[in-house]
Amino acid sequence: EIEERMRVEVELKKAKDAAQQADKMKSQFLANMSHEIRTPLNGIINCTELCLDTRTSPEQQEYLDLVRFSAKHLMRIITDILDFSKIEAGKLEMEDIQFSLYDQLEHAVSVLAARANKKGLELACQVDQSVPDQIIGDPGRLFQVFVNLIGNSIKFTSQGEVVVSALVRSRDGDNIELLFSVRDTGIGIPKHKQSLLFQAFSQVDSSTTRLYGGTGLGLVISSKLAAAMGGTMWVESAEGKGSTFHFT
């Protein structure tokens, strides 16, 4: 009986190791393929931009604008898959440098201001006076989380506002914990479906994909980036009353 139990345990360990290796290889394959696809896609985007700078007819301009929009949308999807694959493969690299937090916030808001303005939304940023400007961390990844959350709020809000805020949650010597929030007046999320938000390739329901698009990876990646920066992410939301995404 003991020998049989040991044999089963050995077989289970072998199966677990094989599954982990297969999962790692899958993530590595996705990362490599995503990287390879980005190269020709960048060529398509650049050539389209060059064509748009030449003299074209209104009809050609319309077609080229469509090509550019579609290529950039595809690039966003590929970037999401590449980031997700890196995270799953344990190859996500984080910087640890000094940077201006205010600049990163301002840049993220300005990048998305036109999209908010096009929908008639107010996009505001509120930073508590206690929040320092110069901090040490990964500015690129922090900016990526800002853009993901603010972009999502704009996407799911048809009227009202999107407000980004930052405040100090705790301080211990040179270490500081910051709390960031992105609040919107959008469609909101039913409580029983909020657990799906941070699962890969998930949407609240199938109509979300049809109406708004997306891979269902943005929040998963943002949550994992927050964890990699020593923080957590969560949501407070009510259907029809908007959402607030917090991360530390």
Automatic annotation (TrEMBL):
Task: Tell me the Gene3D superfamilies matching this sequence.
Answer: 1.10.287.130, Histidine kinase-like ATPase, C-terminal domain (3.30.565.10)
Instruction: Keyword check for Magnesium, yes or no.
Output: no
> What are the record keywords, sorted?
Phosphoprotein
Top-level lineage group? Eukaryota
The region annotated as signal peptide is none
Q: Which residues form the Histidine kinase domain?
A: 32-248
> Is Protease given among the entry's keywords?
no
The protein's name is Histidine kinase domain-containing protein
Species name? Sphagnum jensenii
Its ancestry begins with: Eukaryota, Viridiplantae, Streptophyta, Embryophyta, Bryophyta
